[in-house]
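Hi Y.,

Following your request, here is the sequence exactly as I used it, all 433 residues.
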Amino acid sequence: MAAIMVFAVFLVAIFVSVPIGMSMVLGSVAPIMLLGKGGTIEQVLNNCFSGANSTPILAVPLFILGGVIMAEGGISRKLFNFFSYFVGKLPGGVPCAVILTCLFYGAISGSGPATTAAVGAMCIPFMVSLGYNRTWSAGLIAVAGGLGVIIPPSIPFVLYSLATGVSTGDLFLGGVFPGILIGGAMMIYAIAYCLRHNENQATINERMNELHAQGLGKIFRESFWALLCPIIVLGGIYTGFVTPTEAAVVSVFYALIVSLFIYKSITVKQLIPFLCSSVKTYGGLAFVLAFATAFGRVLSLTKATKVVQDFIIANFTTSFSVLTVCMLFFLILGMVMDTGPAIIILAPVLLPAVQELGVDPVHFGVILVCCLSIGLATPPFGLDLFVAGNLAEEQPMDVAKKAIPFMLAFFIAMLMITYIPGISTTLVNIMKR
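Below is the corresponding structure, written out as tokens. Let me know if you'd prefer a different format.
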């Protein structure tokens, strides 16, 4: 009864538009106040405090801050020029360069909306000037921006690690091949679209010739420090030199040094607004993280997680069946719920059950994050749709229609990621050896 009450109160609160953090509080205190089960109010308050007073949790705001600094430092243009130099003249080369930029920029920002905003602000006007349809370009950016939460370092992977105890480094490794696979699937569609609709090759070649005239040496020098950022951050984690939280600190200082002293694209006076922007982004999530600890503790004391585990094991007998249902559920949930809260709520509840059926925790984390990331570009609440729509000055639903083929390409890659665990676990297993 207590377990059912926790979920019932939480879901009703969500349904009537109570903020997710407060919905967790209501779900946590309901069985205590009404049934005397699930601990005490004092324990709920202590768990909220301990949830916020955590060293690993510092990685989240620090990665956000590092991404903001790099975004404002004009990193996206330097990356785009680098990739355009090699593929820009090929059929579909410019859209492919945009996808590659999103893929690599995700390793800097760790955020889908941040990737969409930083790359889209520069690439959408550029693509329109080359003759590409404005709405189609926005749809491409909206879906490709979701790669920002898959390619490491990824804020959702940090949240999954906080919620479940799975190694952050393993999750970062697990996201590498899936991110590349999804990006590759999107590029295949982009090339097919461009071949079918005949690009304005004369204009494209003219722009690419201007880029080539600068020389590979200059293009590489300008993009070198941007390309080096994820290598430093991820290399530090995988060599054991720094923890993920320390790597987040490194990313902030690296972003400051590169943007202030090497590219000189920002000034010291701009740092305060950057800090304010990062705090606003993290503020709401911080409350959810704090309350999630108390919520999870109450779920444990009321044996709610055991109820879910028993239900799944009783109704599903293979990893194939449970992953199919989970994937579809996550895809639907991603349409109406933000990535961070969804991970914090679902991961600790579902992971023990799917592990009983032989699902690797890293593989499950990758599936969860990938499915929710496509939700960033799906209506009615896909945040990337609104970001890309604003940048292109188009209605989000119009952008969503043009984004559908890219989402189908994403979904095809998603099926492979779900049913071929090695895509997520191969790098992890290699590193462990």
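The two ends are 46 Å apart (CA to CA).

Thanks again,
Q.
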